[in-house]
Amino acid sequence: MLKKLSIAAAIAVLSISAQAQTANAFYVGSDIGSTKVDGLVDNKVSYGAFGGYKFNENVAVELAYRQLFKTDIGPVSVDGTQTAVSVLGIVPVSKEFQVIGRLGYNQLKANASYRGSSGSGSQNGTFVGVGVQYQFTANIGARLEFQKPASDTKNFSAGVTYSF
Question: pTM, whole model, 2 decimals?
């Protein structure tokens, strides 16, 4: 699946190479949110960081790392993380406001510890997301987003972006 996503990203890059680059093509950001995993009692706080490159006003690629949750299940402490690469489709509604669609590939990792012993497991797969972004200035924006990293996991987040 990663090969298919890489090929799709390469085709997107090649197909837009003749178009002019947008100003402030590189960007970084961070977010904070809430993760719900089926089977856990309540939502858990998430936070993450991301960086990307905007090829034009409609296409970007992004790398991200997110702490999805930390929780205790009885005496066992569990934390879940997400490492992801994705392609963003961007629809400008106005000069400042955009709607974002995301298709990506991620690795979800869970680490568990119990009385000095620990173990981990991971799962790789595709994920999707939708959101909106508002540009306050050419460099500073705010983003609200919903992602579905796995079939049993949902994440809502609010973040800031800085373009350079």
Answer: 0.82
